[in-house]
Amino acid sequence: MAENGAVLYKPLGLLAELTHRCPLGCPYCSNPLALDPRGSELDTQTWARVFAEAAVLGVLQVHLSGGEPGARRDLVAIMAGAHAAGLYTNLITSAVGIALDTLRRLAEAGLDHVQISIQDSERASADRIAGYEGAFARKCALAAEVVHLKIPLTVNAVMHRANIDHIEDMVALALALGASRVEIAHVQYYGWALKNRAALMPSAEQVKRAAATVEELRHRHHGKIVIDAVVPDYYARFPKPCVGGWGRRSLNVTPAGKVLPCHAAESIPGLEFWSVREHSLADIWANSPAFNAFRGTAWMQEPCANCARREIDFGGCRCQAFALTGDAVPRYWPTSMETVPNCGIAERTRLPRRRGSSRLQRAPADLFMHFEIRPVVVHPTKRADVSRHGYRAAQFEDAIARFLPPEPNIRTLERGGSEKT
Ligand code: SF4
Ligand code: FES
User: With the CA atoms of 93, 99, 101 and 102 taken in that order, what torsion angle do they form, in degrees rounded to the nearest 10?
Assistant: First the structure.
């Protein structure tokens, strides 16, 4: 039992952000806007201790990520530490910054899996999005060596408005590279992606077409490649069960050693994070104030608090709620869109409820059956109106249309990553 009364599960996965350094400059970079400097990074021995503690805690797999993990000169030793702890090791890389020889040494040291991100299906566009001339060729070369070394390969095809119509070509590229799995991974709007959201957000029509394409490709390539795909957050009918539930299944260690319940948790002000420099991982998992802030369901307000899906999606993503509304658990009413930015149930349940009433209207049963792609984003300048007057579908359709520029223009975007490798 956790301090806040919630059930204390064992974590299964650990995301090890070895560094924020990266030679690329993707406009949707998952790095935070404030990067951990090189001098603050955990050393090899501390990572080995963290992996050993993680294994004792129940963690089964570690994702060696960044930034670009290849920017760490001790990457092989770090990976060996995770392998020695008995963890399944997954290297998440841009492929730029990992020499073929380093990959061979990683394989010898026991690396289990490699995930390479690609920016687009053809060279010029991929390099332009990555902000790095020659990145595409290096990705293809590293992928070939991964397959040659018989390490399972996943291609992570990062999708957004500028390339979402190239899904078929991206899957063809993944097949040609010898990948056993491809993730059609739509950009998640945190950090740099949130900054560049207007240019990255696809239209509803694009998302519908993409969903149909994925279904057709799954059918066509059944048995040859696994195609995983998720609907982009803002178009999903229901919120995603972000990180499998806050403080429930995974933890994230930053380059400097802070332990976060999710990669964007530092964007929520007021949370207290503990560091592996001062605490054991087990102590952090059970007692860190940040992990207990949204663990379980006691923190929830209506409509989540009494919703049948509260143990399925855990109320959605706290970081996204904060990014859209300025509050991870908004306390004003009406709350639905603001509390749970893309929850179909929340949209319905808020309408009949009056201020002060404790009764909620039941969501229609067919809500649970329907999969419907529809934009429900709140335009920042419209939020006050929405709060006062309640949800109006047309208003949101209109808002998202205004939110999108006529054409995506990757050239003008702010670049993530960092050149300090
Ligand atoms: Fe999930 Fe929406 Fe129910 Fe909250 S109201 S638990 S976000 S389905
Ligand atoms: Fe933080 Fe979803 S990214 S809860």
Answer: -40
Please state the φ and ψ torsions of residue 179, each to the nearest 5 degrees: -70, 145
Distance 8 CA to ligand 1 centre (A): 21
Provide the 10 A C-beta neighbour count for residue 393: 11
pLDDT confidence of residue 172: 97
Given the CA of residue 310, which atom of ligand 1 is nearest to it?
Answer: 6
Q: Is the CB of 262 under 6 A from ligand 2?
A: yes
DSSP H stretches of helix in 196-238: 197-200, 204-220
Secondary element (H or E) of residue 118 = strand 113-118
Q: What is the pTM of this model?
A: 0.83
Pocket test for ligand 2, best of 31, 240, 243 (most atoms within 8 A of CB): 243
Question: So what's the pLDDT on residue 265?
Answer: 95
Ligand 2 and 329: CB distance under 6 A: no
Query: 350: which 2 tokens?
Result: 């808020």
Query: At CA 297, angle to CA 295 and CA 299, rounded to 5?
Result: 80
Q: What is the pLDDT of residue 413?
A: 53
For residue 340, the CA-to-ligand 1 centroid distance in Å is 7
Q: What is the pLDDT of residue 393?
A: 35
Query: Under the phi-then-psi rule, with left for phi > 0, alpha for psi from -120 to 50, and beta for the rest, what region is 307?
Result: beta
Residues of the chain with pLDDT under 70: 330-342, 344-421
Short-list 174, 197, 194, CA closest to 184: 174
Inter-axis angle of helices 167-177 and 204-220, to 10 degrees? 40
Contact 258, 271 (CB under 8 A): no
Q: Which two tokens stand for residue 35?
A: 């990067």
